[in-house]
Every structure is written in structure tokens, then in C-alpha cells.
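Quarterly update, task 2.4: calcium ion-bound model.
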Amino acid sequence: MSKPVVLVVEDEPDILDLVDFHLRQAGYQVHKAADGLQGLRLAQERHPDLLVLDLMLPGLEGKEVCRRLKQGQATRDIPVLMLTALASETDRVIGFEIGADDYLTKPFSPRELVLRVQAILRRRGEPQAAEALMRLGRLTIDPQRHAVEVDGQDVDLTATEFRLLHRLASQAGRVQTREALLEQVWGYAYQGYARTVDTHVRRLRGKLGPLSEQVETVRGIGYRWREET
Ligand code: CA
């Protein structure tokens, strides 16, 4: 059994070493890069199973590294865990817009990082069941193509937004707690990440146009896909 390979791109030596140490302890093989260009090159050459990518990097910014990887035919499937020093909403959102699979805000605990890495790889490893096309009123979800339509018009969703919508719609009419959504959609269930769900629900609503109100907030509990009447 070969160990999964994680490429860590981080310009702060202390953090790079810390992350390296903990990932090795957890059984991963680790490659390291200290700037964006080197990170991009290593990702293209070695095709790691996952990339831990700092946002603020010398040379080529983490955002740009991620963008280029997601544009490359051979590298677009490499999942990216983004590290950011900025806790602001904007940067979190940017992380997802450019296709990062998850993010961690500094300072983070190494244990948390390892859990996130494990969750992303576990999610990736799950066989993608050939699920049937789902039609719910004006909404169509095609799990095989990862495509969504509202009134026959394509809706462009990120991978995370797609999973969130799919989960809500497949449980239509039933309330999903934030914790359950975190576990189902993100692959982890910790206290304190409810805002991650809220942020994505807000973005999802924004993209659903005429169906935005079908994602109903159930105060103090979570969210529910309201069936059209
Ligand atoms: Ca940095």
C-alpha cells in the first residue's frame, strides 16, 4: 500500500515543518514547496493526492496556483485545502470560488489540519454512485454530470454548493441540521463551523434565482428544501 502524497506549499518555514511533521505522523508522504511557482511545478510533475496551499505566497499567489491547477486537464482533480491568514468572509469565499475544496484559517491546530485532509481524501475515495437524474419542480439535478438547471437554464455551482444542494433536495421537506450538513457535505462534524454552512447557503440561494426561497431557514436548527406548491 503506497502512502497518499500530500504537497504542502507554504512560505513560513515553521508552519511548513509543523504541517510536514503532523502529516507524516498521520501516515502521509509529504512534498514541500516554499513558493507558488515551485508548488505549481511540483503539483504538475508529481500529481499529489492533495494540495495544502497557503493563500499568501511569494512569487505566485496561492489563489493563482489554485486557479492554474483547476484549469489544467491533468491537475484539475487534485483537491486543494487552502490556508489563509485572513478570517474575512471575502477570502473564504474566494477560496471556494477558485475551486478550493476546503480552507483553514491561521492559526490552526495541526490535528485539525490532519482531520480536514483525511475528510477530503475520504470523500474523494467514495465511489460516485451513478445516481439518477432528480427533478423537483423547476429544479433539475444531474449527479452524473454535476449539472443543475433551473427552468432549463444551467446554474453554475462549485463542487461544495452542488453537494449542498443535492443533499437538501434529496431530503426535500425535511429539516437538515447544520451539523448533519457539515458531515454529509463537507465530511466532518465539529462544533463551531455552522458559519461555513450559512455562507454556502447564502451563495447557493444567490445562484438559484427564482428558486432561492426554496432553501428555507429553520431558525435555530438548520435548513430545508421547501417543495414548490
Ligand atoms: Ca504565507
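Highlight for this quarter: The chain has a mean pLDDT of 87.
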